[in-house]
Design brief:
It comes from Rhodoblastus acidophilus (Rhodopseudomonas acidophila). Its EC number is 4.2.1.75. It holds the Pfam family HEM4. This protein has 9 helices and 11 strands. The strands form 2 sheets. Strands 3-8-7-4-5-6 form a 6-stranded mixed β-sheet, sandwiched between helices. A 5-stranded parallel β-sheet has the order 2-1-9-10-11, with helices on both faces. The protein is about 35% helix and about 25% strand. α1 links the parallel β1 and β2. The chain is α/β, with parallel strands linked by helices. It has 2 domains: about 110 residues, Rossmann fold (3-Layer(aba) Sandwich); about 100 residues, Rossmann fold (3-Layer(aba) Sandwich), CATH 3.40.50.
């Protein structure tokens, strides 16, 4: 299959390599450009560092506090950067559940992107935890895709697209034009699939777990 990968370039290149190993052709078509904000971190000490994306950990130096994070990819990035990983959950809701099982309240440094759902900080703050939120990166939508991507879509030369977040899916659909209803849409989670509500249901496929291995297995079964 020829597949659009809509992630930021560095992440898309890794995914493209995995798709190539499976016999597919990937066309890298980011819908957002990611850049660090340069925001300074507050003074500690902290009881815990929290991250919901590997990208956030790329923008900070290791801190002398355990790391709690969403996803094994984020955990791996944390270990590589020198953090001590104390807790991992598959999504922000379950990470909050896990953390709030602990007795007492804590001071948390939450490193995140500017565009995100506020569920995690809201739940921790509502339970009396002190959450120091620092937005360490921001993602800006691209105005258009390269000409070769647009022409391939118009010519019917692309079979499907991989979506990794509700926001990126919502940004990608208009860029595809009328071709979007002809493509297979492979979604990382039900929340991502909901952003593709305008696509015929038989063209939308949802990973069994919100990890890339499960997303790629959808393509293999297709």
């Amino acid at each position: 299959m020829r597949l659009l990968v809509t992630r930021p370039v560095d992440e898309a290149e890794r995914t493209a390599g995995r798709l190539s190993a499976l016999g597919h052709e990937a066309l890298i078509a980011p819908v957002m450009e990611v850049a660090p904000t340069g925001a300074a971190l507050p003074d500690g000490p902290f009881d815990l560092v929290v991250a919901t994306s590997a990208r956030a950990l790329h923008e900070v130096a290791p801190i002398a506090a355990p790391l709690a994070c969403v996803g094994e990819k984020t955990a791996a990035a944390g270990r590589k950067a020198g953090f001590s990983v104390a807790a991992v959950a598959p999504d922000a809701e379950r990470l909050a559940d896990l953390l709030l099982k602990e007795s007492g309240t804590k001071r948390v440094l939450y490193v995140a992107g500017r565009e995100r759902r506020a569920d995690l900080e809201t739940r921790l703050g509502g339970a009396g935890w002190r959450v120091d939120l620092v937005e360490v990166y921001a993602a800006r939508p691209v105005a258009a895709w390269p000409k070769k991507i647009v022409e391939a879509l118009a010519a019917g030369e692309i079979d499907g697209v991989l979506h990794y977040s509700p926001r990126s899916a919502a940004l990608a659909l208009p860029l595809m034009g009328e071709a979007r209803t002809r493509l297979d849409h492979f979604c990382l989670s039900p929340a991502v699939a909901r952003a593709c509500a305008e696509i015929p249901a038989d063209r939308v496929f949802v990973a069994s777990q919100p990890i890339e291995d499960c997303l790629l297995s959808l393509i293999e079964r297709r």
